[in-house]
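Deliverable D5.2: sample structural annotation.
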Amino acid sequence: MKLGDFKALTFDVYGTLIDWESGMVAGLAPLTDRLPVPIARNAILETHARHESAQQAQTPGRAYSDLLATVYRRIAEEWGLAVSWDECRHYGDSVGDWPAFPDSAEALAYLKQHYRLIVLSNVDNRSFAASNTRLGVTFDAVYTAEDVGSYKPADANFDYMLSNLGALGLAKADILHTAESMFHDHKPANRHGLASAWIYRRHSDEGFGATMHPGETPSYDFRFDNMAAMVSAHQQEMLGGQ
């Protein structure tokens, strides 16, 4: 299997192209700054992952920004901190402030020359639109949790994407699902028979950070530590084909 075998890249955005973990840690600073004992970064992220995943399962039809506000309140309650709803809402609205990884925009600009680029994201449309300005590329299609009414790793999100991509003339064999999260993306990609590329942003860290443990490790077809490495691999393929 080669990268050049595919016509479209379907992307998880947050964790893959947008540095959501740094965004989360910064957004939760009003809570962590009030804790009597400092808390490790991974512990913050794992707490967030637990509450976010539970809330997504409980209220799958809620917009991500609204859901994040509740996650903020749940974390505050767990840590014994009082918060106002305005503070919770501020966190929910912070997605557009989360930074892109330094290599994302340049990598997408290159890949756009060779693939159709598709988004399959666990956010609402307004939040993604704000993040998209940081990525600097026009995606060929955008499918969000708000569009579907559920959150990955639910099968409905992948069913929705595949149905719409079929209408655009793209078959499963044309698609390489490109994502960091084993839990949200690679596990359901396996179930749907999709080839996948693991963008292992956390390769120098421990654990799964802002995503839940996937259980048994899903399979994947390519692994890159970042998007720049994926671009480099594609360029080497192109040179080898000349």
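Annotation notes: The mean pLDDT is 96. Strands lie at 8-11, 116-121, 141-144, 175-179, 195-199, 222-224.
The annotation will be released with the project's public dataset once the embargo ends.
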